[in-house]
Amino acid sequence: AIGEGQRYIQNNAEELETLQDDVCSFGCIILEALMGSKLHRKGDPFILSELVMSLSCQEEREHVLDPVVLGTSSQDSLSMVVSITIKCLSVESSTRPSIEEVLWNLQYAAQVQATADGDLRSEVSSQAC
């Protein structure tokens, strides 16, 4: 019976590790969406740790992120997405967020963006009057 308990713990640890790897992979997908064609234009293979450092620095973000993303995203929404992306890409798997936390943050960032878009639309329509 002890062996089965150990196997259960080992299987759960492996499953948790797999989930953390999935979170990291999802972070890579978000990173690709944020960078767009810049990711593939660089020519050199990118080093993930350097990209994460660039994302962490507000001034360097403009050089790393796709101009379309920068031009169409509110600062608050973009900061939330970048922040959760950086957490997903953490080298230490135990510090990565759960997939539920990632999804919650992305949904919240989408709400913030929708509010900013609504504010922008009402600003434009009030200027038209």
TrEMBL record:
InterPro entries: ANXUR1/2-like (IPR045272), Kinase-like_dom_sf (IPR011009). GO terms for molecular function: transmembrane receptor protein tyrosine kinase activity. One of its GO terms (cellular component) is plasma membrane. SUPFAM superfamilies: Protein kinase-like (PK-like). This is Serine-threonine/tyrosine-protein kinase catalytic domain-containing protein. It comes from Aegilops tauschii subsp. strangulata (Goatgrass).
